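User: Predict the complex.
Assistant: Input components as received:
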Amino acid sequence: MADRDDTPDETPETGREAGPETAAPIAVTSRLPLVVTVAVLVLVAAAPLVADAVGFSYLLGTLTRAVILGMAAVALDYVVGYGGLVSLGHAMFLGTGAYTAGILLFQYAEGTGLGTDQALVAWPAAMLVGAVLGWAFGALALRTRGVYFIMVTLAFNQMMFFLFNSLAAYGGDDGVRLSGRNRLGPLSLEDDLVFYYVCVVLLVVVLVVFNRLVRSPSGWLLRAARDNEPRLRSVGARTRRHQLTAFVLSASVASLAGALAVNESQFLSPAISHWTQSGELLVMVIIGGVGSLVGGVLGSFGLLVLEELAIEFTGNWQFFVGLGLIMIVLLARRGLAGLLLGRRRNV
Amino acid sequence: MSDPTTLRARGLDKHYGNLHVTRDLDVEVEVGRLQALIGPNGAGKTTALAQLCGELPSAAGTVHLDERDVTAINLPGRVRLGVARSWQISAPFPDFTVGENVVLAALAAEHRGFGFRGLARRDPARNDRARHLLGEVGLRVDPATPVGELDHGGQRLLELAMVLATDPVILLLDEPMAGLTPGEVQHVSDLLVRLRADHGILLVEHDMDVVFALADGITVLADGAVLASGPPEAIRRDEQVRALYLQEVD
């Protein structure tokens, strides 16, 4: 639609606001310019090198967690920012991925023949299990909307949390230490820097996929359903189907992030699926910029780096993190991504 | 499957608690005819439309599309069978431009499967059709205009273009002329006359001049029930209708 040269000759009769923005091809559905996403990814890729150069190489673990949780936040943003479905249950998918990959690793080390240390088996398996759970829970949760959807996803999150807690073979609520990371072809994931860049590459793939989805027919219908679902159904859209597939994809990618997280820490624990982790993912999406995808990455880096710095300088770090969050929400209505984009054009 | 030609409702009933909104309603919409549905405020006109299009379930009664019983088919399903309704209150999607709104409606109605393939904005045929429909309804703005910049009349016309984008055979229009300028009313009237050739139209409308100029048949609702139904001349002469409804308008 709407390339500049195929607009009809008639002048808009609603000339009141006809500024340069009206002349822009698709002013309203402006996504973040690609350059912002690329810039963020370049910064992410350079971060360990910079940290190393200024003597903060111990931050590599934190940066890796930021990449991994950023991936989960991007997946969550697709459901929250584009679907308008606020899920307070995405940590259960982190847990699902972590326990899928973690149990496979654990069984491999035990030599029971039921495990594997191959990333190319374990990570897709994590995504598959996450998708199946996402489908089951999503189908039920999508019978509700709004605050009820939040509560139902939270309830499912708690169910999964207590399920993981009850796995005595894997340390119950204490969790269990793993003896190493997955193996990925010739790459040595035991090397923290190599593992970091593997995570970054996967993050790029996830961003490309979701960017494409947002512009697909399904993505358009998802966004339109967010704004007025009954209206969209009245022109024939099966809205539930698009919402469910979005939820399943999101769950699957969050599970991949969970599998990466258990590789990062080499420690399998139900803590990753606690509902407060779901809340933290939501906070990342909000401070990064709801409905911007790459905002999830900005949010996770912002939050984790903020925490790290605050812990460095004060014992009351949570107070200052909270203060920082309030400032961001008040001063940057569309989050950090919105700051980079400038003022939103359509109001 | 060939296109349907008749939407026939028999004995539609709907109530909210003690409030009986529609009772034992019979309505028929046939390709080539424009049936008007009139009645005082609160007579149940909008509820009747919602029952016809499948948005609201009926407590009793059936809806048939030709010989097929579609009573149990939901709203998106009926749109795909060719029944579309416009809304009394315009509600275009604020996040999309004027042209994109029409494209969205077309996507919503046509889409099978998951819809992951392709880019929504990059189908030339669909985009051309959207532009054509905007011209048809007389909305002369740049398709790239944000919907928020449309005035009320523009939004009404966009609503109509979106309904047409679903490729309907049976059109259920809820006061499409409300709030339009006389010029726009004339344009939409002409459009409805053209559409009548290959569509069945049910028109809810308050403007009696428009109704009597366009309608092939008129159904008068009062308190949720059909008070009278017949050709315009008969309705114009009907004592009950005059007493209950027309005089208060004149």
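Chain B has nine helices and ten strands.
Let me know if you want any component modeled separately.
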